From TrEMBL:
A GO MF label: DNA-binding transcription factor activity
Family as reported in the entry's similarity comment: Belongs to the LysR transcriptional regulatory family.
Designated name of the protein: LysR family transcriptional regulator
Residue ranges of domain HTH lysR-type in the record: 3-60
Species annotation: Pandoraea apista
Gene3D superfamilies per the UniProt record, alphabetical: 3.40.190.290, Winged helix-like DNA-binding domain superfamily/Winged helix DNA-binding domain
Entry superkingdom: Bacteria
Pfam families: HTH_1, LysR_substrate
GO cellular component: cytosol
Keywords: DNA-binding, Transcription, Transcription regulation
């Protein structure tokens, strides 16, 4: 048996109105078209459903048996259709973001605040996760947008470059500045320093599986310092704190400069060579991209550009 919802709705309407002409008008089809639909449904059931005269339409015994079942089915499907439409509307008004801890703690508050002012009816949700987990959340459809340093392409992911950031040396301000300046608890940047200057430094870093650390090790190899045993920490905030305490020099993107602003550390862009890496937005390949995604991304890109300009200016 192959009966469509449209046929069931037409049957219920004819049975309720008792008139083919008025039912056809309600359905926006011709009376002849409606008659064809009713003959098809009668053929499917193998029984007449209506007794027709020139003046009236009445249900047969088979029609009376079908009417409550058809009415209930149509009613339930209409109710579910309304619920599904509401779900879709709610999804369109929800934005799920996945980001690494530094992005979440130092950038997302600004981004969320600005976006909420422009879109007070949008529910913006944040998943804090490590880089690989951010990508997994996006691939599984549990997050709409992901933000971080995604250095490798993935078959199921679309990457959008938002900003390129240079690598910088972060060290204790007290090592280079007068004690009074160090006590101010504010990041200082005196421009640039060469990778060669790291030869005699005590280095601290991220774990070896981190793609940023892998890039750092590539360039440390040129001065004979690659893959050495050294203290390793998973988060940039921890590295910055350790550097501030004088426990070592960290190498990280200028992207982390906002996290250094209120710490007694010195930030210097590394040169010879100057090394950049890209900060990306990722989405699941093949998904439609609502206007809200574009608006949030543009807001985030403007913030990224300000950070890069701040690092250049100091």
């Amino acid at each position: 048996m192959n009966i469509s919802l449209r046929q069931l709705k037409a049957f219920v309407l004819v049975a309720t109105l008792g008139n083919f002409t008025r039912a056809a008008e309600r359905l926006h089809i011709t009376q002849a078209g409606l008659s064809v639909m009713m003959r098809e449904i009668e053929t499917q059931f193998g029984s007449r459903l209506f007794d027709r005269t020139t003046r009236s339409v009445t249900l047969t015994e088979a029609g009376h048996a079908l009417l409550p079942v058809a009415s209930a089915a149509v009613g339930e499907l209409d109710t579910v259709a309304v619920q599904i439409a509401a779900f879709g509307q709610a999804q369109r008004k929800t934005l799920r973001i996945a980001a690494t801890p530094l992005v979440s703690s130092h950038l997302m508050p600004e981004w969320f605040g600005a976006f909420r002012q422009a879109h007070p009816d949008v529910d913006v949700r944040l998943h804090e996760a490590e880089l690989a987990q951010v990508q997994g959340l996006v691939e599984q459809g549990e997050a709409d947008l992901g933000f971080g340093f995604f250095t490798k392409a993935s078959h199921g992911i679309e990457r959008t470059l938002m900003q390129s950031f240079r690598l910088m040396r972060v060290s204790a301000a007290g090592k280079h500045l007068p004690r009074k300046a160090a006590r101010r608890g504010r990041a200082e940047s005196d421009g640039r320093t060469a990778w060669e200057a790291l030869r005699a430094e005590v280095l601290i870093g991220l774990p070896p599986d981190n793609p940023i650390q892998q890039l750092v090790e590539t360039h440390l190899a040129r001065i004979g310092r690659a893959d050495e045993p050294r203290p390793m920490f998973r988060r940039f905030e921890t590295l910055i704190g350790m550097a501030e305490a004088g426990l070592g020099t960290a190498i990280m993107p200028t992207f982390a400069f906002p996290a250094c602003r209120h710490r007694a550390v010195r930030c210097e862009v590394l040169t010879h060579p100057e090394v950049s890496l890209g900060f990306h937005r990722i989405v699941k390949r093949g998904r439609s991209k609502p206007e809200l995604w574009r608006q949030f991304t543009e807001l985030a890109m403007a913030s990224m550009q300000r950070i890069d300009a701040m690092a250049h200016a100091r």
